[in-house]
């Protein structure tokens, strides 16, 4: 029987990082692949990532860089498609990149370079990409699926869901993947915004207002997860890598602990300083170790105006505690509007860790951010998108 044009081996919903990687992989296996996306352009999040330069992988990525209710699930795919594998792909396309922070690889020029690698690979692999196409329904039919779209009804043997998470709805993010999973009787774990700035209660927000725009290296922690990176005070609250990282571990009502001088033995420093230079002030001490504006405003906020000799041991201990364990209770986060990722999602216990296929429905696959695997900041999320995309592309 002749195969109609609306019959595909593989249909992938979502032309983002994971979907495009999967499409090229399956296409190279000789599969007839169609990628559908309701947005007007593919890979929009790739283009906006890494400040427009896409932190496309992290050479030091390990399973410990991922959050999941089923932490072992990601190990297999990450092991079989490594950061080095993606670097080799990028090298083959002549993309120039640089290591901006240990392990974090960014394009030297533009994130467009990474999107072009993926689109070129899809073209070479013969995978078709159809944008501006919305999917209104999916049904199992025989051993495959029928996909109703704004461009007509299509059929496929394997269906791959790569619709991402809920973050940045203005970029085309939807809960479609979760709804589809539920339709097929699968469990979706509660979702929440991750890698997202914190908002503050009005009083603290007002107190910190003079610090807006200032960043300093800190050790931020929540639930014993420590991140030693920089913190940025903004007009809305607290951001910067340290805050984004710790936000993925934060739940409403939790406190954050911030060591403002992680490189110092603060209490010892202050006792020594009081002995050697009794007239010196906290402002002088802070000026040595923090950005000037931050030192000044934080000192004013705390009202530490007297010479050190006037502080008792107990006072010094308290000051050291305030600096080393500044404890704040955020009002919330900025939510999906600005979050880089969505935590939670499809419960991975229902998927094969080798192929990303649903255990009970071997022709249905979920990859990328829609599943409950979320990386730390620093290129880990794209590495998961590549690795899970390849895993499914080798099977679908
Ligand atoms: P992704 O969101 O990329 O793609 C999903 C696709 O599905 C989209 O094209 C969407 O239009 C489509 N879609 C959704 N619903 C649909 C529907 N109903 N019908 C049809 N199509 C539908 N990570 C990292 O490692 N390094 C970095 O530098 C950054 N930087 C960064 C910056 C910002 C601002 C954000 C928001 C995110 C990042 N990330 C990141 C995270 C990274 O972008 C993210 O983890 C991956 O893009 C996830 O890839 P997916 O393919 O799973 O989803």
From TrEMBL:
Q: Which InterPro entries match?
A: BaiN-like, BaiN-like_dom_sf, FAD/NAD-bd_sf, RsdA/BaiN/AoA(So)-like_dom, RsdA/BaiN/AoA(So)_Rossmann
Q: Where is the RsdA/BaiN/AoA(So)-like insert domain?
A: 192-341
Cofactor list: FAD
Ranges for domain RsdA/BaiN/AoA(So)-like Rossmann fold-like come to 9-394
Q: What Gene3D superfamilies does the annotation carry?
A: FAD/NAD(P)-binding domain, HI0933 insert domain-like, Translation factors
Keywords associated with the record? FAD, Flavoprotein
Protein's name according to its UniProt entry: Aminoacetone oxidase family FAD-binding enzyme
- Source organism per entry reads Marinobacter vinifirmus
């Amino acid at each position: 029987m002749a195969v109609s044009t609306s019959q595909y081996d593989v249909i992938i919903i979502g032309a983002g990082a994971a979907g495009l990687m999967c499409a090229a992989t399956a296409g190279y296996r000789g599969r007839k692949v169609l990628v559908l996306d309701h947005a007007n352009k593919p890979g929009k999040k790739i283009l906006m990532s890494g400040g427009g330069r896409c932190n496309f992988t992290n050479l030091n990525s390990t399973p410990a860089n991922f959050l999941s209710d089923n932490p072992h699930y990601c190990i297999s795919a990450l092991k079989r498609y490594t950061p080095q594998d993606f670097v080799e792909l990028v090298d083959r396309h002549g993309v120039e990149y640089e290591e901006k922070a240990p392990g974090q690889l960014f394009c030297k020029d533009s994130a467009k370079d990474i999107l072009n690698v993926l689109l070129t690979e899809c073209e070479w692999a013969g995978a078709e990409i159809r944008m501006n196409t919305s999917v209104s329904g999916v049904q199992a039919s025989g051993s495959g699926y029928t996909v109703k779209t704004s461009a007509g009804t299509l059929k496929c043997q394997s269906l791959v869901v790569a619709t991402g998470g809920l973050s940045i709805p203005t970029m085309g993010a939807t809960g479609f993947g979760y709804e589809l999973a539920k339709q097929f009787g699968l469990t979706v774990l509660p979702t929440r915004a991750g890698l997202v700035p914190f908002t503050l209660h009005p009083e603290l927000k007002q107190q910190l207002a003079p610090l807006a725009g200032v960043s300093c290296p800190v050790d931020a922690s929540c639930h014993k997860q420590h991140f030693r990176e920089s913190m940025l005070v903004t007009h809305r609250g607290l951001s910067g890598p340290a805050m984004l990282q710790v936000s993925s571990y934060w739940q409403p009502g939790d406190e954050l602990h911030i060591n403002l001088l992680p490189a110092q033995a603060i209490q010892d420093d202050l006792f020594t300083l009081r002995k050697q230079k009794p007239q010196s002030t906290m402002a002088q001490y802070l000026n040595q170790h923090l950005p000037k504006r931050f030192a000044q405003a934080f000192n004013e906020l705390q009202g530490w105006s007297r010479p050190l000799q006037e502080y008792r041991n107990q006072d010094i201990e308290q000051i050291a505690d305030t600096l080393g364990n500044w404890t704040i209770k955020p009002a919330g986060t900025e939510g999906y509007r600005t979050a880089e990722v969505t935590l939670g999602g499809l419960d991975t216990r229902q998927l094969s860790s080798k192929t990303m296929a649903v255990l009970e429905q071997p022709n249905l696959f979920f990859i990328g951010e829609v599943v409950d695997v979320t990386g730390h900041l620093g290129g880990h999320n794209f590495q998961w998108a590549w690795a899970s995309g390849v895993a499914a592309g080798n099977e679908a």
